[in-house]
Specification:
The complex is a heterodimer of chains A (about 450) and B (about 230).
Chain A (H helix, E strand, L loop, with lengths): L20 H13 L4 E2 L13 E3 L20 E3 L8 E3 L3 E3 L9 H14 L3 E2 L7 H6 L3 E5 L8 H6 L2 E5 L10 E3 L6 H7 L7 E3 L9 H14 L6 E6 L3 H10 L4 E5 L8 E2 H6 L4 H14 L7 E5 L5 H9 L4 E4 L1 H7 L7 H6 L24 H4 L4 H25 L13 E3 L2 H7 L16
Parallel strand pairs in A: 5-15, 6-7, 7-8, 8-11, 11-12, 12-14, 14-15
Antiparallel strand pairs in A: 1-13, 2-16, 3-4, 9-10
Helix pairs in contact in A: 2-14, 7-9, 9-15, 10-14, 11-14
Chain B lengths: L2 E3 L5 H9 L9 E5 L16 E5 L14 E4 L15 E4 L15 E4 L12 E7 L13 E6 L15 E4 L10 E4 L3 H13 L11 E5 L15
Parallel strand pairs in B: 1-2, 2-3, 3-4, 4-5, 5-6, 6-7, 7-8, 8-9
Antiparallel strand pairs in B: 9-11, 10-11
Classes of the chains: A alpha/beta (about 450), B mainly beta (about 230).
């Protein structure tokens, strides 16, 4: 008869906070492949965000408006500083620049359809303008990028506004890399490059070297388009006070400020997670720059980077933005990371909700791909309707909050309507810590 | 022959008048006086006209030109012929940085020297520089021909794609992934074609050396990390 087994007292496996499972897998992957991880999307780490702010709904000292009964305006005019033909949008939510090449033609068409239904604009991306998006976007912003892939003066004139891209929130100071597997014959032709090779997008404009040159570049674009179209300048959030001031000094009609949660087609994970500022920290300095120059509301400010809900929209506007822009959220509305495709995501070694290897061109949803069979899965009419629905919800939510704060237009929201839940958020957003009148660092820039 | 005095009338009027020309215009030869180094002169043209500029021009002269012929009797500032699509630009003097930057087509001829980053990110244009060019020229050049009768500065053709570079004089150094290649019949034919367009039939193509991409950096590989 065997002796009874003695109980074994072992501690449960415990992962290191420093070397957590993800970190360990990254070290192992780096050692095996010799290349850093490249992925799409924006920062996944938790950073101070709009969730750390709350609105102060009206009670006695403020007087609310009646939901569903009293009107709350949402229209916005962009580019009123110099352009003969400013942009007029029904809602303060625009679609951010995303390239054909990164996205399928069907996805670009769907973005155009959805935005047009909602009364807002879409934006081209690296690689030029496609008929899919020009044909389906009632208002289209044409990006003028460092790579100048597909840059064409005819398309410049067909656009409704021009956005000079200096940087992106996901990678301020960085260029791009569209890996060869997404370079279809059409993408290669548009970019004047051989098929199938990795395509680098430059990190800086080749023909100017700083803010003084930017001013002259803006003048050139205005001259080419006869001063009709608004000129946006897009910057990645890193030094928002100075970059906004220099964009204004250079003659921008609109400044687009993109926080680190903003997505990208493909960039190094280490870059996405470690460079730039959360959008919450970037808005207040940008607004302060506009105010210091006497240009707040004269040069409009669009902010982007992790906008998800009408509350985010309302908070960005309350902090001083004129509009917001969405990229990742728009792709999710089209059908990105749809749980119905879970089996296919698992085949790719991931799961719905975490898929970010957009550069591989294998997107089961047919959105971030140039594979014709995968791209054909996306119905641009249905996906456009889904995007329009989502944009409507963002707007309704923002209106609901604005009414509760007693505002007859979403642009009447103001920092005084906000408090912060954490000291960090209070310091970054320059609003008081909840229950106090304390704004940390109020006297700084 | 319409003329325009930039000392007396604003640049905006000139460019808008040039943009407004109908396809069948008889006003096909314009003369611009007193350019005074102004920026963006005759940019965004899209008509088969000739524009003669008497004097020096500033940044982005002839920017995004399509179909027009622009002749400058003087020097040109940064980015002459920026993103040109077609047509022709000729500079009788020297050109500053980024001449022909990102240009997709057409012909840019510089009688004098061109400064740094000549032909940067060029995408199909033919550029002929009768003098010498500065450093980092043809950086990330994608397509087209850069022909230099003089010398080239450092890091010529750094990170080049499929553009063809022809230099008659010395090259201070080549950039990453740019190598000298044999000047074969195909290259000689291309070079002679560009020289002829520039009016240089008396220059022998065989005097040039040919540089292009080693295509070693077309796909990222960690063993090439030293090149990045």
């Amino acid at each position: 008869m065997n002796a009874p087994m003695k109980p074994v007292h072992r501690t449960l496996p415990r992962y290191s906070a420093t070397f957590d499972p993800h970190t360990i897998s990254e070290i192992q992957r780096a050692a095996a492949t010799g290349i850093y991880d490249i992925r799409g999307g924006g920062a996944k780490r938790k950073v101070p965000h709009f969730d750390d702010l709350l609105f102060l709904g009206a009670s006695i000292s403020r007087y609310p408006l009646e939901g569903y009964r009293e009107k709350c305006g949402t229209d916005v005019v962009l580019g009123s500083r110099f352009a003969k033909k400013p942009i007029r949008l029904k809602i303060p939510v625009t679609i951010a620049g995303m390239s054909f090449g990164s996205l399928s033609g069907q996805a670009k068409e769907a973005l155009g359809r959805g935005a047009s239904l909602a009364g807002t604009s879409t934006t081209t991306g690296d690689g030029g303008m496609t008929e899919e998006e020009r044909g389906h976007s009632s208002i289209l912003v044409y990006q003028y990028l460092p790579s100048r892939y597909g840059m064409n003066p005819k398309d410049l004139r067909r656009a409704d506004a021009i956005e000079i891209v200096i940087g992106q929130g996901a990678k301020p100071g960085g260029g791009g890399m569209l890996l060869g597997q997404k370079i279809s014959p059409r993408v290669a032709k548009m970019r004047t490059l051989p098929e199938g090779i990795d395509q680098r997008s430059a990190c800086r404009h080749p023909d100017w070297t700083g803010p003084d040159d930017l001013e002259i570049k803006i003048e050139e674009l205005r001259e080419i388009t006869d001063w009709e179209k608004p000129i946006y300048v897009k910057i990645g959030a890193s030094r928002p006070y100075y970059d906004t001031a220099l964009a204004v000094k250079s003659g921008a009609d609109v400044v687009v400020l993109d926080g680190m949660q903003g997505g990208t087609a493909a960039t190094q994970e280490v870059f996405i997670e470690n460079v730039g500022l959360p959008i919450l920290a970037a808005i207040a300095p940008a607004v302060r720059a506009l105010q210091d120059l006497g240009m707040h509301r004269k040069v409009q400010l669009i902010v982007s980077g992790g906008i998800r809900s009408g509350a985010d929209v309302a908070k960005a506007l309350a902090l001083g933005a004129d509009a917001v822009s969405i990229g990742s959220a728009a792709l999710i509305a089209l059908g990105d990371n749809d749980p119905a495709l879970e089996a296919e995501y698992q085949k790719l070694g991931t799961t719905a909700g975490a898929y970010d290897d957009w550069h591989e061109g294998l997107d089961p949803a047919g959105i971030t791909t140039q594979n014709p069979e995968l791209a054909a899965r996306l119905d641009p009419v249905l996906a456009g309707r889904r995007l329009a629905n989502y944009l409507a919800v963002l707007t309704l939510e923002a209106q609901t909050i604005a009414r509760a704060c007693g505002k007859s237009h979403v642009h009447n929201l103001e920092p005084e309507d906000l408090v912060a839940l954490t000291m960090e958020a209070a310091a970054m957003a320059r609003v008081p810590l909840a229950g106090t009148s304390w704004i940390p660092g109020q006297t700084g820039l | 022959m319409p003329s325009f005095d930039l000392a007396a009338a604003p640049l905006r009027d000139l460019n808008q008048a040039l943009h407004a020309l109908p396809e069948t215009t008889n006003e096909t030869h314009w003369v611009i006086d007193n350019p005074g180094g102004k920026h963006a002169i005759a940019c965004g043209l899209d008509a088969p006209i000739t524009v003669e500029v008497n004097g020096h021009v500033g940044y982005y002269c002839g920017g995004m030109n399509a179909r027009a012929t622009i002749r400058v009797s003087g020097n040109a500032g940064v980015g002459v012929g920026e993103n040109m699509m077609s047509g022709e630009i000729r500079i009788s003097g020297d050109a500053s940085q980024a001449a022909g930057a990102t240009a997709h087509g057409g012909l840019l001829v510089i009688d004098g020297n061109a400064s740094a980053r000549c032909g940067i990110s060029m995408k199909g244009v033919d550029i002929v520089v009768k003098g010498s060019i500065g450093p980092m020229s043809a950086f990330m050049a994608q397509a087209g021909n850069l022909v230099v009768l003089g010398d080239a500065g450092e890091a010529l053709g750094d990170s080049i794609y499929e553009a063809k570079l022809f230099v008659r004089g010395s090259v201070a150094s080549l950039g990453a992934d740019c190598i000298e290649k044999p000047l074969g019949p195909e290259e000689i034919e291309a070079l002679e074609g560009v020289l002829a367009k520039a009016g240089l039939e008396d220059v022998a193509a065989s005097d040039f050396r040919f540089y292009g991409s080693a295509r070693g950096l077309y796909h990222f590989h960690v063993d090439n990390a030293d090149a990045y």
